[in-house]
Structures are given as C-alpha cells and as structure tokens.
Amino acid sequence: MTEQDELRRQWPAESRLSLWRAPDGWQHRRFDWPHPAPRGRVLVQGGRADIIEKFIETFRHLHAHGWSVTAFDWRGQGGSGRLAGDRHVGHAASFAPWVADLAAFWQDWRGEAAGPAVLLGHSMGAHLALRAMLDGGVTPDAAVLVAPMIGIRSPLGSRIGALIAAAATRFGDPARPVWKTRPGDATSGHRQQRLTHSLERYGDEAYWYGRDPDLLLGPPSWAWVREAFVSGARLLADPRLTRLAVPVLMLVADHDQLVDSAAARRLAARLPDVELIRFGAEAAHEILREADGVRLRACRAITDFLERRT
User: pLDDT band at residue 2, thresholds of 50, 70 and 90?
Assistant: First the structure.
C-alpha cells in the first residue's frame, strides 16, 4: 500500500465520529474534523449508497485549505441504519425524509459555530441539497454540486424509464431490488468504469467494506428509482430555481453513465448565480475520486470558488 493509499484510508487523527439524532429519533453516523483556525465550515454529503469514508481525501483537501469539515451518512445507508427488510437494498419510499434530515442537521450544525457555512453534495447528495435549498431549510453561504443527480440515466430514456419504475412499484414489492447482485466480482469491472478511472480509489471501497461489512449497501429498490425520476423532473421544472440566492459551483461529467449530465446542465442554465465546470471523457461519475488529473482540477476549482465567494 502506498502512502497516498494510506492517507485515503485513514481517519485524520484530529477527527471524530459520533451520532446525530434526527427529530424523529433516527440515529445518523456523523463525522467532524475541526480546523484550529477555520475560514469556515463545509458540510460534505455523498450520494446513494455512499459512506463517509469515501470522502476522506476530499476532507483532507478542504482541511488543508483552512476549512472545518463535517459529514453524515444518509438515513438508511452506511452507518445510519436501513430502510428495507433486506439490509443490502437501498430503499426509499420518498426522498422527503432525507430532505428533512438535512434541514434539521443544518439548523443544529449552523448553530454550533459562527462564520461561513458551505454545503457540498455529490450525486444524490447534490439533488437533496438543491431540494433543501429551494425549500429554505438549508441556507448556505455557497454550495458545490458535484455530478448532481437531476436525472438518472436510463437505456430507454427518462420517460419510459419512469413509467417502468412506476409500474414495478405498483405491481410488486416496491422495496425489492432493481437488479440481483452476483457473487464475487462478476460485475466489478463494469461498475468500476461507471464510477472512476482510478483503480486505486475504486479499491478503497473493498478496503472499507472488508473492515466493516455492515456499511455495504447494494442495488436501489424500485421505489427509490421511481422517486429519483419523479423528484428529478420536479426539480428541473421548479420555478424557484431562478430565484435561488445561493452562489453555486456545479461540476459535471459529460460522459457520466449514472446520472443525466444534460439534465444537470439544463438546470444550471436556470440558476441566477452559477459557475459550471464540465469534464470530458476523462471523468466518470465520481469526479472527486477520479484519477489525479481530474480530481485535482476539481479540488482546486472548489477551494478557489469558496475563497472567492465566501
């Protein structure tokens, strides 16, 4: 294992894990890494099936540039319990509880310290961040949306994909998985290519799940897919987008095979204060966990944006 691998796979010495309890009592696993002389704080939220550990390298970059960093695992994934009887299925009957969790956490967290407060969301996390900002439950001084899940990629297109997901939830168990997981590494190569070109960073997942198998989450449920289509379409058409007062940096991978990058670009065009940075074939979905050429460009863009806008 190289020194860089070790840094990605080690908790920072000054950081801590704890539990945050939502208003309804649900316990979420929380990460905090205070900076001794912070220029501000960043709340970093991952995507579907993500875990806090996957963003340690991003935490280190932000902390090195003067930011205190916080994150939590979404309800139903990582170290924050499960929402389906099968703990390997990523289920959600609605995204509303996640938006409510984010708003409640934000209010608690914002009151813990003064100074600029920033929200950084990846994929589904960016989707939920947008919803929370439009609802007024989250009011960051700036927001960074990385590979935002405005629409999800479907081989049959979003309209037919949405109809299939709606039918699947109506005529079967909505919490059943969309696909069956195969034993061993039968689909590993295909999944890796959709996430990142960096074999080393892709390998980090196996390291963390090997240490704690309970963190692993498998395929989404049909209900999650239906909700992703519905919520994405509503976001794209939301008239409040043109009135969003938050400065936004959006990083989009044009060749993303998981989310609809064209939908993200259409949404960006409706925001009144947005900086859009596009990546080509060199970037897959996990821009912040890509090979260094992509990852470092993205990290520099984020810290430059935060220095200028907060």
Answer: confident
